[in-house]
Structures are given as structure tokens and as C-alpha cells.
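Tutorial, part two.
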Amino acid sequence: MKIFYSLCLAAIAAGAVNAAPQNELQLVDQTLANPDNEPAPVHPVPHDRQVKWMETEFYAFFHYGMNTFTDKEWGNGDEDTKLYAPLSKPNPRQWLEAVKEAGMKGGIAVVKHHDGFCLWPTETTDHSIINAGNENGKTNIAEEFAQAARDLDMKYGFYVSPWDRNSAYYGDGTNNYVEKVFKKQCDELTSYGTDQFEMWFDGANGGGGYYGGANENRTIDASTYYDIPNLRDWVHKKMPDCVMWGVGDEARWIGNEAGWAGETCWSYGDGVNGDPNAWYWKHGESDAKATNRGWFWHSGENPHSANRVWQFYMETIGRNATLILNYPPNNHGILPEADVKVLKEFGEMLRQRLGTDLAPMATAEASVTRTNGASRTYDASNLIDGDKETYWAAPDGVTDATITLTFDEPKNVHLIALQEYMRLGQRIKEFEVETSTDGFTWIPFTGMQTTTVGYKRILALSGSTSNYGDGQDLKAIRIHIRDAKACPTLHTVSIY
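Running the prediction step on this input gives:
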């Protein structure tokens, strides 16, 4: 007790020496919780990697591999590796150069389909290019594709089929396939770059196959078999900006392979419309064939016209989805000349139709505007400043607002595009558009549904996703947001 009492006295004495005088001002750090007065996020919200992925918008699919030489769409896994014998050295750079001409920002190469044949020299199986039928076939597609994308300043990723109809390990009742084959293959592909923007894990899983000679049906439960949570964590540690499509559950299949999304389209839920009540972010990706046969190249196929590609574009990117459009390299390992010609035509069409935004020439006004913060403003002028990180917002509790863009002189208008500030969540549930030729008389636009906006909604004044029309000479455009989950935000309004 004496020792304890002595220690207490010493502590009090030390405190008295170090204590500040009572009349000395004590400064306390008082940081405002929201100095910029930003709207509270409406959950779910996207991760930064998902925002970057949405911004890619338009990219290519390249189905190429064993099926190119067997005239199949799904190989069984028992194909002789010597059948893979390209007639020329494959040229992934040519693939990417062609789609870049069309305005695409990247591409995904199929480097392993369900037959298990790998287009890089993997250590996991002999069913790969190391045993190809000629020297052309030994070209490392994964390596050359990744390098070409970097050289062309394009995004890239790989399709790696989780289902492997060749591997004896697949669905054998153990975790050998996932640990010894699938993860190792994914890991090998990171050696060609950790800057992949998407890893495409197809949803086809289990069924009949060769399976190392077993020649039987094998079924698995995809939700547990691939150990998705740990797989996702492992991929993100290796590739922080890589979105896992399909099995990875960070982006969703839009629900068809026909290149269209619903006019009402939420960035969460499933299918063509999504679900406004779903609880996690899963933006839609629409995959479509740009040729009239299969996903892989087949003799005698022809590409769809540039105008058909425009329809794909309007019904996917114009409806809050991304578009991955498939152009299959042929048995020479290049895109056919007919495909290249259409891609160039579409690129010219896209530049002509979406190359000049008229909105910055207008005056933008809003019926309500959120109070500015310490370093952020919410004025309607943010809608036309060309900066995706500035945005207009309504005050808290306000879900009905009007934005008006007025020109000094009438402009010929075909298209109107709206973009929400998605980092704070998708909000708009219903809006309407009115146009005016004189700035006083307003005519309602009724040609398309005006429900959700999301990352991007493009309205065609022709009322058609395929008919561009002659446009309308307009003095003003009025956007009336009628309902939203919370105070609406828009970062850009574009007029073409």
C-alpha cells in the first residue's frame, strides 16, 4: 500500500508539472463531416474498378482457338492438339487495330474455351500451343495480345473458361482442378500483365466431356466449386483494376446474346432490366455476335452491317450497359477483310454521329441546385463542362427537378445523352424530355421509354435505335426528372 501511495503521488506531481494553465486556450480539431456538402450515397455503389470498367463502354470479343479449326462452337476436350494449325502467324495486333478504328476501347481474347486448349504455353496441361500442329500455332496469343493492347493504349483482358472438358481433375470430387489447374492458369496469365480490366469467366459449368479419358458427365456447384470469395480476393490482389465477369459476380450477363438491354435498366440485379431493390452492384454487360454464324469463325460467314452495329450500340451503351461485340479471327489468325471494312465504316459513323457535342454551346439552367461545398459546386454548368468528376445535384429531399439547355440559335439535334454520377449510386427512376423550336413552345418526346438513366442513357429523337433520321432544329431542350431514389445527380448532358 505504501508503494502504491507513493506511485500515485508521483503521478499527480508529474501531471501538475505537465498540466496546461487553466487560462490557456485548448485547440480541438473540429473537421466537418461533409465540408463539400456532397449527397449521401444511395447504396449499392460501385467499386472504383467497376467505375473504370463502365467507362470502357465498348470493347471487342475475340473467339479464337481449337474450335476455329474444327468448325465447332464447343469442343469436347479430346481434340488432337495438332489440329490447331493456323495457316499464317496469328496477329492479335491486327485484331485490336481493326476494332480501335470502330471506336472500341479494348478487347477480350478467348485464350481457353471449354475444350481446355490453352493459347499460351501453360505448365498445367499438354493440351496447349506447345503441341500445336505447326510453328504458326506456337504463337503465344496471350502475350502478344496483351503487348499489342498496351502499344495501342487499349484495355485488355482474357476469357478463361472455368469449365475444362479436357482436364481429368475437373469435377472429380476434389479441389484438385481449382488449385492445380484453374488458379494456376489465371496466375500464369498475370505474367503477361496485371493491368487487365476484365477477366471473363463463362457461366457454362459442367456436363459431358473427355475429362482425361473418362468420357462422362460431371456436374459441379459453381457457387462453391470455384471458391469464389477467395478467388475474387486473389484476383484483386494481383490485378486491382480487374473486374471478374460471370463466375466472379462483379458484372452481370444482360440476359441474352442478342446485343440489347432493357430500356429500364438498373446497375444491380439480373437480366435485361436489373432490380431496383437488389443489394449489390452488378452492372450489365451485353455480348453479341457481329457476324451471322457462331462465336468462332466459320467458313462462309459474313459480318453484320455498320447500321446493325449502330443498333447494338444504341440498345446497350445507350441503355446503361456495356457492349462486348464479337469479331472472330479466321484460320489465318486474323480478322477477315470484310469484318475490317465494316469496323472502319462504323468508326466513321460513330465519329460523325457522336463526335461533336453541341451541349457546351448551350446555356444550362436548373430549377433547383444544391448548396455549394467548400471545394465543390453543383451548378447546372457542370453538366456541359466536359468533366465527368463534376456534377449537378439537387438538394436533399428533392426528387423532382428540371434542367433546361438553351441555344442562341437553333441546332440540328438527333440524340440526347444523360449520365448520372454513378459513384454515389444510381438514382433516377423516371424522367421526361421536352423539345422546343423557339424556346417557348414545348413538345413532349415520346419515342422511347424515359425511366432509368444510370451510367448512360441515349435518346434518339427519331424514336428508333436503327433509323438515325434527319434530326430536329431545336432552340431548347428540357429534362424533367420526375422521380428518384434520392436527390438526383447528373454529371453530363450531351446533345448531338
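Residues 1-23 have pLDDT under 50 and may be disordered. In part three we will examine how such features are distributed along the chain.
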